[in-house]
Each structure stands twice: as C-alpha cells, then as structure tokens.
Task: structure prediction
Amino acid sequence: MIKLGELQQLVIIKKVDFGVYLAPGKEEAEDRVLLPMKQLPEGKDIGDSLEVFVYRDSKDRIIATTTIPKLTMGQVALLSVVQTNKFGAFLDWGLEKDLMLPFKQQLFRVKPGDEVLVSLYIDKSDRLCATMNVYNNLRADSTYKKDDMVTGRVYTISEEFGAFVAVDDIYSALIPKKEMYGSLKSGEVITARVTEVKPDGRLSLSIREKGLAQIEKDAEEVLRIIDSYDGVLPFNDKVSPEIIKRETGMSKNEFKRAVGNLLKAGKIEIGEKVIRRK
Result:
C-alpha cells in the first residue's frame, strides 16, 4: 500500500513520456503513483526499486518524489515560515509545494521568517498538513541524566501542568508548574537543568539553579526590582503569594529567602509595609 507522507520503497511498473508509475510491487499495479520524469534517476528502468516520498502536488494530485523532505510522518522538524494567508501559514519543507500549517494547528500565531517546530498529519481531505502539537512525536530516549544542563524550545504552556519543552528539538520534556520562574513564552529557546528522568524516558526540567546560587540570583533580581521603585518596594515579604508572584515571578518562599539574604548582607531594611534599599 502506498503511504502518504512517508519514505518508501516502490517499484517502477510502467514508463510514459512524462514519467514512470510506481507501485508497492510488480503485482500491485492498481495501487500506483506517478514519479515525474525529471525525478527519475539515470539508469532506472521497469522492475527497479526506488526510495520515494509520496505527497500531493500543487494540483492536489498524489505524486512521488526522490527529494527527501525535511519532515516525514512521525517526525518533528524545525521549519521556516514562508508566508501566511487567511487560512494559516506555509512552511518550507524542501519540496516544490510548501507545507500548510492551518490556524487551528498553531499553538501561537506565526509570521514569515519564524521557525516553528512541527509534525505531519493527514487532514479530513486526505492532505498532508503541519501541526505544532508535537508531543506524541517527540522522543523519550535521550542520554541526559539528572543535573545535566540542556537547551530546549518551549512549544506550548499549560496552566495546569507547566511548560512543555522539546529538548534539542527532539526529546520530550516538561518544566512543571512549580518550577516555572519569570515569564516563559511559547517558541522561546531556554537553557534548563534536568531534575528527573521519568520511567518512560521523558525529562523533567527546571530553569532555576541549585541552592545558594539560585538564592543569590534571586537576591540580585529583588534588588533590581527595588531600584525600579526608586529604592522603596511598596510591599514586604508578608504580602500575599499572588502579589509576590505577579511582581517578581518568584514564589513566596523564594522571595523570603532572597530578602533574608539581602537583609543579612545589610543591603536592605524591612519596614512595616515596605522594603528599602540601604
């Protein structure tokens, strides 16, 4: 059976002026696809086998090509946005016809020049399209270990679970909600630390450093925020966690540890409702 969106070995069963017809085998002539003559490697003839990719051309006809695209079914790939229209975006995947990324398959709006991580799917009209919902096609067989530093791309953010990340644009990872710090955006490339390798091979990440190094980093951020308020922060560590999170991106415990570090270093003083820089 000829499979749309996949690389496959097919046999030349017929030659015509404009190309050759390929089929899964010599006896399966009814299930066949055209390979244009310009795509036929020199020296190939009836009965020979070819590796081809099958997709739909600009006239929506199923056609074969010996050009290997940047993305096949079951994979993920980082593709460039060529143009957009009222239906979605078009991506360069190395073939003559650009790949459609419908609006409903975009996790955030893209524009020409953007690079987006996508997978393939077949829509209701039996056409190949791209989707930014890549979770099921990301791999879970990385060699990373706990405390390794990795680079990944945030491809979507869930209010319930956290930030979903494609490490090296290949491996499945999650920054749990409790480990999110500051403002992360979909499409952003981040550096993170592996906090756990799950039994299924997926990675848990944190963008926070370990121990004292993180406390000192948080303390520097608190000082920066105090300076943005002309040296007097209009709240202290007794306000609600929601206010602290909104203003600093930290949890209340993280904020209290940072403030304690600054207080011990003599860099601030805490008033009844404010924190002042000395």
Q: What stands out?
A: The chain has a mean pLDDT of 91.
